[in-house]
Amino acid sequence: MFTTHDVRTRHRALVRLSAGLLLTGAAATVCGSPAHSVAPTCGGLTEAQAAAAGYTTYYFPGATADVVVGGAADDWVYTDGGADNISTFGGQDIICAGGEGDFVDAGDNRDVVYAGGGDDTVYGGAAHDEIFLGDGSDYARGYGAPDLIKGGRQSDTIFGDDPFVIAATDGRDTLFGGGGSDNIHGGGKADTIRGNGNAYG
Ligand SMILES: [Ca+2]
Ligand SMILES: [Ca+2]
After folding, report:
1. What are the residues whose beta carbons fall under 8 Å from the beta carbon of 38, sequence distance 6 or more?
2. Residue 81 above 50 pLDDT?
3. What is the pLDDT of residues 134-174, one digit of tens each?
4. What is the pTM of this model?
5. What distance in angstroms lies between residue 23's CA and the mean position of ligand 2's atoms?
6. Phi, psi of 15 (to 5 degrees)
7. What's the 131 CA to ligand 2 centre distance in angstroms?
8. Backbone φ and ψ of 93, nearest 5°
9. Separation of 126 CA from ligand 2 center, angstroms?
């Protein structure tokens, strides 16, 4: 099923697990895929598909508070329920944080974050990130480059860039509030901002 490269990738993930960087959970749910899927997906990929595509995978289903420390390469993260703490640094990472209030720092490069339910805090880091905040009263910062951030049903606070310092790296962000009374700040550059209740993340 797996190539030699996949085995090495999975081995590295297990090494991190054995180093005490990660905690595991139990039951599985679906993120970003139809409910009838056999294996849960994140960003349209199951863990096996993500590993085959070269991602370092962190798969922790269940309602436990997981801690994930990714690396400079491309990470695929599925933590499901529980208040998770996820940092993935460089690489083009795909993150599904699941329910409850999570903290996500996607780091450099282009990342895709599905924060799920709960009151989440999400930092996109540098580059063009896509952040979907889901339910809960969330807080998000896109930081540099043009980011796409979509709020959810409740009242969210969304910043396209650093709210305190206008920088040359600020991007033309696209920010949607979704439901609730949202607080949205574009930052530098010409941003597109909609309080639209039909644009849930
Ligand atoms: Ca990474
Ligand atoms: Ca980023």
Report:
1. none
2. yes
3. 999 999 999 999 999 999 999 999 999 988 899 999 999 99
4. 0.80
5. 24
6. -60, -45
7. 10
8. -95, 150
9. 4
